[in-house]
Amino acid sequence: MQVLVRDNNVDQALRVLKKKMQREGLFREMKARSAYEKPSEKRVREKAEAVRRVRKLARKKMQREGLLPMPKKVVRPR
Question: What range does the record give for the signal peptide (predicted)?
Answer without folding.
Answer: none
